[in-house]
TrEMBL record:
InterPro entries (alphabetical): CD225/Dispanin_fam, IFITM_antiviral_protein
Record localization: Membrane
One GO cellular component term noted in the UniProt record for this chain: plasma membrane
Major location (coarse): membrane
Name used for this protein in its record: Dispanin subfamily A member 2b-like
């Protein structure tokens, strides 16, 4: 954005260049030989700018939740983790990063608990079977 003072002490004018390609093609910032041509496009009052928060980096742990649900579903913790992962993804699509982080954190905790308990039970079961077979 470049601000220029208007002759006569009026308001300053803001000029914006929107694309990198335009900047390279039109050489934004350089003085043009044609005084009527300005390399920047002036925003009109009807133009609007929508600022979209970057929530793509919120992890919803959906794949881990599917794996836990299908293979390590100890006391339905995998199902609950999957439900919270879906809620996290829904919050992310709506544009609520705080809600998405909250649900993703809960899904992560449930996935950890389900995985830990299922692995402990699996190892305990294998040990009990090996002890019984060896006797």
């Amino acid at each position: 954005m470049v601000e220029e003072a208007v002759p006569g002490g009026g308001e300053s004018v803001e000029w914006h260049c929107f694309r990198e390609e335009e900047r390279e093609r039109m050489d934004c910032g350089a003085e043009s030989a044609d005084p009527g041509h300005h390399p920047y496009r002036r925003l009109k009052p009807e133009d609007s700018v929508i600022i979209v928060p970057n929530i793509a980096n919120v992890r919803d742990h959906i794949l881990w939740s599917f794996f836990t649900f299908f293979f390590l579903n100890f006391c339905c913790l995998g199902f609950m983790a999957l439900a919270f992962s879906v809620k996290s993804r829904d919050r992310k699509m709506v544009g609520d990063p705080e809600g998405a982080k909250h649900y993703a954190s809960t899904a992560k905790g449930l996935n950890i608990a389900a995985t830990t308990f299922s692995v402990v039970i699996l190892i305990t079961g294998i040990i009990v079977i090996l002890i019984q077979v060896s006797q």
